[in-house]
Write a structure and sequence with these properties.
CATH topology: OB fold (Dihydrolipoamide Acetyltransferase, E2P)
CATH class: Mainly Beta
Radius of gyration: 16 Å
Strand content: over 45%
Order of helices and strands: EEEEE
Distance between the termini: 47 Å
CATH superfamily: Nucleic acid-binding proteins
CATH architecture: Beta Barrel
Oligomer: single chain
Shape: globular
Structural class: mainly beta
Length: about 90
């Protein structure tokens, strides 16, 4: 499988904005992405919302956070907040 020194998992890392913090130890993070359409060659904006585990309840609405892929923690929650990049004013 992997080398004996230790498997390093490459987990997905996303950066987004907290849009809801009403749940206990859970935040909803909106991630925006911009890509070029394969046929029309125009830029297209897409938004996705992820529920992320916030163990210390430190995130608030408007905070810019980095989330990392993790094991399933509930039915919808498969991400966790790895660091708060910028606090909302």
């Amino acid at each position: 499988m992997g080398d004996t020194k230790g498997d390093v998992r490459h987990r997905k890392v996303l950066i987004g904005t907290v849009v809801s913090d009403k749940m206990d130890r859970t935040v909803v993070v909106q991630v925006k992405r911009l890509f070029i359409h394969p046929i029309y060659k125009k830029y297209v904006r897409r938004n996705a919302k992820y529920k992320a585990h916030d163990a210390t309840n430190q995130c608030g609405i408007g905070d810019k956070v980095q989330i990392i892929e993790s094991r399933p923690m509930s039915k919808d929650k498969r991400w966790r907040v790895s660091k708060v990049l910028e606090k909302a004013v």
